């Protein structure tokens, strides 16, 4: 599988964020999976890519011209696609990926995983979406998803689409065995 990883362009303020990103990259490679990511050399995204490459894996980056021009592109990737905009970046990553995983990150990470999840609900793809819940990072988001369900804005089968795990091995096993729900408005 090619796993799209969405995560922070910053490393966060706790060492365990970097350790988790590196461990995730090493684990995906050990289990035979490739990385699709935002193409940057900074933050957690750079850590994941470095770990994949150091472990002998393949890393496919997709970066907008404006970020490449600020010298933020990761060097030494298996392939780096340069696109015009963030919209093109997300679409290209979605085309390349067989699964989507969010590690800790900020608004961009949320945008990316929520868009992938929404597309899955609508049947635009049948790929798994997951949260790597490092040290409970996504606990409040999971509470919000529960509130969406209890308030009538989200059906249980679509809430259940989001895989949540605290260990990379368990998360990847669930990606490998994912069965999508019936698409919304079929």
From TrEMBL:
It catalyses: AMP + H2O = D-ribose 5-phosphate + adenine. One of its GO terms (cellular component) is cytosol. One of its GO terms (molecular function) is AMP nucleosidase activity. It comes from the Bacteria. It holds the Pfam family Lysine_decarbox. Signal peptide: none annotated. One of its GO terms (biological process) is cytokinin biosynthetic process. The keyword Hydrolase applies. This is Cytokinin riboside 5'-monophosphate phosphoribohydrolase.
